[in-house]
Sequence to fold (607 residues):
Amino acid sequence: MKVGVNHKPMKIAGKIWKFGSDVDTDAIIPARYLNQSDPKELVKHVMEDERPEFCQGVRKGDILLAEKNFGCGSSREHAPLALKAAGISCIIAKSFARIFYRNGLNLGLPLLESSEASEAIQEGDRVRVNLTTGEIFDLTQKRKFFAKPIPTFMQDLIRDGGLIPHLQKRGSKKNVKYQSSHEVMNRR
Amino acid sequence: MTITEKILAVHAGKRHVVPGELLDVRIDLALGNDITAPLAIQAFKEIGAKRVFHRDRVVLVPDHFTPAKDILSAEQCKVLREFAKAHRLTHFFEIGEAGIEHTLLPEKGLVLPGELVIGADSHTCTYGALGAFSTGVGSTDLGAAMATGRLWLKVPESLKLIYHGKINPWVSGKDLILFTIGDIGVDGALYQAMEFSGETIRSLSMAGRFTMANMAIEAGGKNGIFEPDEITLEYVKPRAKRPYQVYRSDSEARYVEEREYDVSKIHPQVALPHIPSNVKDVREVGKIEIDQVVIGSCTNGHLDDLRVAAKILKGKKVAPSLRLIIIPATQEIYRQSLKEGLFEIFLSAGAVISPPTCGPCLGGYMGVLAEGERALATTNRNFRGRMGHAKSEVYLANPAVAAASAIKGRICHPEEVVG
Fold:
């Protein structure tokens, strides 16, 4: 699979919010707020029980760092939706729960797996991420880590803001029909 | 190939698949509920889809916050209702004929052995008890699947879990799965298919199998699955309205790992806060007083579960100031419980009986916890704040332990209440 030749490398920089292992989707967005799905409402309660200062303190571009199994539990897409709406630009973890991983990428939220980065990077560090190469650079500690790069077709999803805008953008106006990301991947 | 690989291969139109392979699969059934379907319907509209891939194969069940707990929940249900009407869906279940989705669908014969089901709910893995491949997805995936009837999936590696030995009194499928999660951890089967097998499983009831497959996600599993046998077919035959195919793993099928459990050494289990893998033998949890007991959910709201609870509660009273909430999982289970006289036993014991709903399991309503309160529940998750206040606690156990503990006012072995 070729790296997107027509695109500039995707780079992200932000401040780190560090979390532990097995952060579940109930912690990310408690079910009591799931009687609606408006990102503007969800964002007011993101990580409310887990870390009450998060939703006030988080700034656009900030990066979330976690240990293993991030996003376990419920399949609620409201969880990555709320994190994205809060301004989180990327999540780096040792591992992700599988439904959260799918949901995050479908919403255009970059997710990177790196045990080294998860262990070494500290709360508040400024970090720069190159999504094209998987390079993670801790500007505070001046240390570099590598995650497995996000597959090209998923980079395209992220660039377009998620699966839906991706399909809207790439579908012809005459025949706007859904193509699964697998088809998209084969096409490239 | 394993049973999981065989089902995936057939649905991808392939003869052979291997773990790690990406497939574009055909879906037999796509499911959504009142929390996840509104976002899926939004995605469905945004991609410009005009109609669902098959009006018999898209199922909507409002069950989480129904009967609607507030105006916003009512609005969400309305979105489902209107979509179902516009697309003339055969299977939209209004509350009078509904129940908790994962107990309802098998009961109605909507999921059959060998099928491939996706649902925007993590406990969609429940249907593996029928020998189907089923897995949870998010709303965007569901929206796209409702339009196309297809989805991309990666073939998971399979983890074989083998149970043998005689099952102890008051031990059920819940204890086997809690013990397993305690053993392998909440990410012990991450991205994997959990295949439950062994002589103990062959004599396990369908209710017990549904409970085990249901909690595969609590070990991070992609799906949980059982090879169909006589017990499965006895359950399926009177319900099935279309042909189905039974698959079994080949003797030379490859597994990432095989783990064996001697169930004669497993006693009723309790998962302590705040993670389902924090499991102990009920006799080792110490004196833990509780404020509330919930018997129900997609994990343990089956008729068998309520019968066990009734057996223990018969002629007894719940502890003073303890709240016992019993939630039959479907209208059919509700009707049958009433007919069998279970409700009389529950009411006399001082329990309250709720209509079918997910309700308190996810801290929605119908039994939400206040600060500092502690509940024992037959549900599937005990994450911080899962049933209410962030400073409340949830302990997970089987229906027998739950009923006995409701009588004692503290977590106890059923033997303390009945000999």
